[in-house]
Structure formats: structure tokens, C-alpha cells
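Work Package 3 (structural annotation) set out to generate three-dimensional models for the target panel prioritized at the project kickoff. During this period the team completed the workflow that converts sequence records into C-alpha cells, so that structures can be stored uniformly alongside our sequence database. As a representative example, we reproduce one entry of 385 residues exactly as it appears in the project archive.
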Amino acid sequence: MPFYVRCGKLPKALHTVLRSESGKIYYEEHVSREGFSDVFASVYHIHPPTEVRGVGKFVRTTIEVAEKEPHRHHHFETFKFAAKGDWVSGRRPVVFNDEVAVYTACPKKSADYFYRNGGADELIYVHRGSGTFESVYGNMAFSEGDYIVIPRGVTYRLRLDAGEQRLLIVESTGPVQIPKHFRNQHGQILDYAPYSERDFRTPDFQEPVDERGEFPLVLKLRGGFQHLTLAHHPCDVVGWDGYYHPFIFNINDYMPKVGKVHLPPPTHLTFTGPGYVVCSFVPRPFDFHENAVPIPYAHSNVDSDEIIYYCEGSFMSRRGIEVGSITFHPQGIPHGPQPGLTEKSLGSKETDELAVMVDTFRPLKAARAAMEVDDPNYPYSWLEE
């Protein structure tokens, strides 16, 4: 995670007694990666975090693949999906492989239950809407343009404000990381990185909720959803510290780099994960060589699949792309600007586009659900006529 954070009441030393003013012992929970050999947080509860009042049903779920689809480019018009469910039940899968799955959601409502993804880390991009991220670590207000990074095992829920909500969600088999080459040997973000620690928001500590009763929790595993009932409110935390915690970064705080000629997508790198990267395309000046071609050249990426989620602005290299569109360009087939757009771009000084790209190093599969909003004519959009 980005950096060390300390909140609330803590004992002077790890794994020592912490008591309330009345003498009651608080319960320590050690949350860690890779056993005990990677980042961790120490979280102190009023009640034992192990208390479960009821074990409910296990609902198996898998992403159905669009198996009969030919190997081709896709354009998914995700704003054609109607509002559905909450921020968990309303997720619609778009593309996936064994390391990463990409969903969109247009939730109709918040949910009272808490949620914990036990099988994947999550990255939620808030395209439209706002609300409050509530977790055992504290709360964070979120709004349009926010990336919410949620390590696996974090218990949370989203309280959605009124109005339209549109989310892009990436589930990852490993942690969502700051790229290594943006950090020094001590983990500090380097001065020439496109952001700094000042740009990252961490949870605002809340007074612990000391309530017993029945509190529903949905636990996601790779095979499905386990429904549990906790014996106390999960946000009973009196203090925590460590490097393992959720955080928010807003795409508008990304500082883009520009060059004399067009710079490739790795210039816009924002996060990395096992088998994939996330890039942010934000408004920026174009290249300053007198003969520079502002928009991307045609590209044959023989080792990667690419999806781009289009958020706002004008998308100069694509025709027919709307806000909320996702293009999926699989390896083996070149992609690039549609006819006439290269010539049209010459002399342009800046772009106002806002988009999120996910590149994977292993092939992606289109989800069956995504074919409901697929444009079948997109593969032919590069024909001159």
C-alpha cells in the first residue's frame, strides 16, 4: 500500500495488551499478505473479529464466456445496461481471464449488508455518482473520477448518494500496486512520478460502533458468495495501523507527461497488478514536434489484450465511441485510428479525453453478458468506404 497510516488507540508495542478505560481488553486482528512476510495492518476490536452468529447459504457463481464469438475487436456500449441491484449484485462482467475480471455496474440502490472480497483485490473507478465508502478502517467520501483501491479481506460497503451511479470494477488475483519504478528503495513515491503521497486519501477514522445483534455479511470467494451473519457490528475498531488499507486516488490528480512526438500508453501507467496494468488518459497538451502526429499510430500488440473505458471528452482516435463505451482489442489483430482521423488530428494542440485502460499479458475472454451491448459492426469500422 502507499504508506504507513496510524489511527485511533494503539498499544505501545505490537501484540501487547490494549485496554479500555474500564479495563476491558480489546481484541487484536493481524491482517497480512503472504502469511507474515509482506505488508500488514494491526486492527483492534471491541469484540472478537471471529464471532459469527450464523452461516447461511453459499451461492455458486461463474462468469459465462461468450464461447461462440469469433476472435475480433469489440465495442461494448455499457450505458445501454439498465440500472440493476446494488454495487455488488448489479455488477455485469465484461472481460476476464484467470488473473483479472472487469465489470461495470449501474446500481439502483445502496445495500445495508457489509461485503468482503476474500478471493480478489478490487479497484473501483467512479465514473458517475458519489457516496461514502464505509469500512472497518474508517470512511472515505468518493465522487466522480475516484479510483477506490480495496485490498482483499477488507470489510466495507458503499453508501450511494442520490442520482445516477456508474462504476468500472476490476477484480485482481493480487494486490493493486504503485508501479515499482515510481518508488525508491524505501517505498516512497519518486519526485518525477505522475502523483505523490499527497494525492492519496486514506480512511477517516470513525468512533467505534459497539453494537451486538445480527449483521449480514456477504463474503465473495472464487467459487461464489458465502452469506454470513456477524454477532456484532464489524466497524467496532478502536484503532489500527500499518501499510495494509484501502485508499482513493482521483484520476484528475494524475500528472500526464508529454513528449516531442507521441508517447505510448506506458507513459500513462497508474497501477499494476499480477498480469495487468491500469493506465489513465487525462486532458493534456499534444506533442510539440512540427510534424508530430497527435493521435496513436496503428498497433499490433502481440503479447497483450487491451480494453479502454471511455469516460469523458473527445476520443480523437475512435469514431462512434460514446461515453461509457468499452473497446476490447485482443492480441493478434492490429488496432488504431479509424480512416481519416489521423489527417484530421494534424495540428491539434491538446486533448480533453478522459479514459481508463486495462492491458493484460494473457488473453481475455468476452463475457456472455457483455454481448448484450456489443456493436457487431465495430470490427469493420476501419474500412475506407
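The CA atoms of residues 146 and 250 lie 4 Å apart.
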